[in-house]
Write a structure and sequence with these properties.
Low-confidence stretches of chain A: none
Helix content of chain B: 10-25%
Number of helices of chain A: 12
Low-confidence stretches of chain B: 1-48, 155-170, 214-218
Largest sheet of chain B: 6 strands, mixed
Strand order of the largest sheet of chain B: 1-7-6-8-9-12
Strand content of chain B: 25-35%
Strand order of the largest sheet of chain A: 3-4-2-5-1-6-7-8
Oligomer: heterodimer
Structural class of chain B: alpha+beta
Number of helices of chain B: 3
Order of helices and strands of chain A: EHEHHEHEHHEHEHEHEHHH
Chain lengths: ~250, ~220
């Protein structure tokens, strides 16, 4: 059965989309069929990491939510963009982008969208694309659509930076997720500066949130260099950030 | 002020070692100390048993260590911008493989490979290979990052030193990190306490039932 994984953070700028994209690529490379749905409709970003131009994309998630297209029509196969030599492998990676058109974003903001329809879309994607993993990149903050996406997931990944504002907001989100009976919640601390003891931080977060910490990922300049233009783990396969992601991917496969 | 960011990359097997600052280091730098954990690379060629060394990236003007790398039982240390190296320094003056430290004939030899050369006391090292002694400082490229070479007495186990600058790499005191539990509980109550949230829970339950195939089946 396909695993649905929501990635969420309380605030923006945690590197959530970057983590999502890299995890999806890593898992796909292991021979799985994976899709990412960018439900961060208000501030979409995942498409950039796959060099997908949503202006040229005929359909986006917005079109599906407005009943103008089937969701598979908004799913773009990016396997060859991010996986070298995928021939002969069962690896497949699809991305369902959100529209970057300001009118389309505004319309969703004004009208909202039907979460039931979105959920049906997830199920259709899983069935029609024969997915092993579905990643849902959510909009930061606490809102109804996001909470429901979290609720239908098998795993919730909560991404935060090591600062007190993120810690406070994440505490609220984590408690709400528990009340929504999310099956599994894993914490990821991202953008950890060089002077911070990552192991001590891991222990601290585990204890504070009484939750499993799947990864503590370093901040560094290389990430800034490739950010938003390529898949980091492809380019820096031995980097501590990549190794942290590999460990998280292992955990997600369990 | 120039900023350097470094990252430590592993090859081969690795493990985590906790370091504590030794007394002699406290005298030499005014930076605060933290207990650090960082990875150590192990070379499989253990026959030569090279002594443990550490390399410290020095602050350009203040001279204290911004980051310390520690190597034991490793006879080759590659320094450069390439993230497959042992000491990775992201700086435009540093070549991809700028220099190599090799333990040969009972001594540590520094070989320059970089286009911009290796400097000692502001002079370009003309000979391709030079022997380093404890405390030697060398610079990668003109005006580039400076590294200090230290032989570490590992008789006491894996004690070595590290420090970080208050300016560029704060040894962040983790005890300051946290959240206000009462405030969080109040916020949760505000959101979860009303009818909307109860409706949301029911909605979530009905959406879950739509999972195809149903949960637990394949």
């Amino acid at each position: 059965m396909a695993k649905i994984i929501s990635i969420h953070s309380f605030r923006g700028g945690t590197g959530k989309s970057n983590v999502t994209a890299n995890l999806a690529v890593i898992i796909a490379k292991l021979g799985h069929r994976v899709a990412i749905v960018d439900t961060d409709i208000q501030s979409p970003g995942v498409h950039v990491l796959f060099q997908l131009d949503p202006k040229r994309a005929r359909y986006t998630l917005n079109d599906y939510l407005w009943g103008l297209a089937r969701i598979e029509q908004a799913a773009y196969d990016v396997t060859e963009t991010v996986i070298a030599d995928p021939d002969g492998s069962s690896a497949r990676l699809f991305v369902v982008p959100s529209s970057v058109d300001s009118g389309a974003i505004g319309r969703i903001l004004n009208e909202g969208y039907d979460v039931g329809l979105l959920n049906d879309g997830f199920q259709e994607l899983i069935r029609d694309l024969r997915l092993d993993y579905l990643f849902i990149d959510t909009h930061p903050g606490v809102n109804e659509e996001t909470l429901l996406s979290i609720a239908v997931s098998d795993v919730l990944l909560l991404v935060m930076r090591p600062d007190n504002q993120d810690f406070q907001g994440t505490a609220v989100t984590a408690e709400l997720a528990r009340r929504l009976n999310v099956k599994e919640m894993l914490m990821i601390v991202n953008k950890v500066p060089g002077g911070m003891d990552r192991q001590a931080l891991r222990e601290k977060v585990t204890q504070l949130y009484e939750a499993e910490v799947a990864g503590v990922l370093p901040f560094n300049e290389e990430i800034v260099n490739v950010a938003s233009s390529a898949i980091f783990s492809n380019r820096y396969s031995e980097h501590p950030f990549t190794r942290g992601l590999l460990a998280i991917a292992d955990r997600l496969k369990a | 002020m120039r900023r350097c960011r470094q990252s430590r990359t592993l090859g081969g097997r690795s493990r985590l070692v906790t370091f504590a600052a030794p007394s002699d280091f406290q005298a030499s730098a005014a930076a605060p100390f933290g207990k650090w954990v960082f990875p150590v690379t192990h070379d499989d060629s253990r026959s030569a048993f090279p002594p443990a060394i550490s390399l410290r990236l020095l602050h350009a003007t203040q001279g204290h260590a911004l980051q310390t790398w520690y190597f034991e039982q490793q006879s080759l240390v590659r320094i450069g911008r390439l993230d497959s190296g042992d000491v990775v320094i992201t700086d435009p003056r540093v070549s991809r493989l700028h220099a190599e430290l090799r333990f040969e004939n009972g001594a540590w030899q520094l070989t320059s490979h970089g286009r911009h050369g290796v400097f000692q006391h502001d002079k370009l090292l003309i000979r391709p290979t030079t022997t380093l002694s404890h405390g030697a400082v060398f610079q990668l490229g003109p005006g580039g990052p400076q590294l200090e070479f230290l032989e570490v007495d590992d008789s006491g186990g894996l004690e070595a030193e590290t420090a970080c600058s208050t300016i560029e790499f704060d040894c962040v005191d983790l005890s300051a990190l946290g959240f206000d539990k009462r405030q969080a509980a109040e916020q949760v109550q505000q959101i979860a306490g009303d009818d909307n949230f109860r409706q949301l829970l029911e909605r979530a339950a009905s959406l879950r039932k739509k999972r195809q195939p149903p949960l637990g089946e394949r």
